Amino acid sequence: MATGSNSNAAYYNISNGKICQSFKAMVEGATERTTQTGKIVFEKFFDYIDGLITNIETRENEYGKQWVITLLDQETGLSQSLQFNYSSGYAAAFLKALPNVDLSKKVKITPKLTVEGDKKKTTVFINQGGQACKWYFTKDNPNGLPELKQIKVKGKITWDDSDCMEFLENMVKNEIKPKLKGPSVAAPVVNADALEENAPF
To answer: How many distinct structural domains can be found in the chain?
Structure first.
């Protein structure tokens, strides 16, 4: 099963801690939402998406750099595209667990969003064969992953994850992608309003 309910669509992103499928018009099971820019969108939400990872790549559009994960639903033969922001809690959690994933078997990806005060915290859980795939890169065992840096932007202290994301992108390119066998799916451009909680980790 590709998602938490029956669906033939191939393109997904993550919004509000759920797998999100967008439509140009209302369809059964979808809800209507007005984005921050005033655009009306129609969306279906699912708890998870699963399949065999066949490709991982980055793409850039007018909304910034994105990760695009291609998953093959082995039951239907349908390839699906899951997209999320390049620098986000979703990306960090997914990439940090990748070295512990058996890429010859399907995965179940479940996003989560928690709100602490005025801050949103995002992550994803990767499950395989009923077992959680733990992070390979952790605080206690970074395995070469650079630390976040504090920088000042317009007088405000913030965290910079540039070195971390560059390290993880190179890891995917050199260690993960050579093990993947399958087509990629060209993801459509997703409005940034739908990905507004994809904040840096």
So the answer is: 1
For 74-126, write each residue's pLDDT tens digit: 888 889 999 999 999 999 999 999 999 999 999 999 999 999 888 899 999 99
**What token pair was written down for 191?**
């409005």
Is 192 domain-assigned?
no
At 189, list the tokens. 């451009």
> Which pLDDT value is given to residue 184?
60
User: How many C-beta neighbours within 10 Å does residue 136 have?
Assistant: 17
Sign of CA dihedral 56, 110, 120, 135: negative
pTM of the model: 0.83
- Quick one: tokens of 154? 């317009």
Can you give the CATH number for the domain in which 112 is found?
A: 2.40.50
Q: Are 20 and 147 in contact (CB under 8 A)?
A: no
Confidence of residue 186 (pLDDT cuts 50, 70, 90): low
Closest alpha carbon to 112 in 125, 130, 98: 125
Closest to 123 in 3D by CA, of 115, 133, 132, 113: 113
Helix (H) / strand (E) containing 163: helix 162-171
Residue 7 in this model has a pLDDT that exceeds 50: no
Angle (nearest 5°) at CA 85 between 29 and 138: 115
Cα gap 55→3, rounded to integer Å = 18
pLDDT at residue 16, as a whole number: 87
Domain residue limits at 50: 11-133
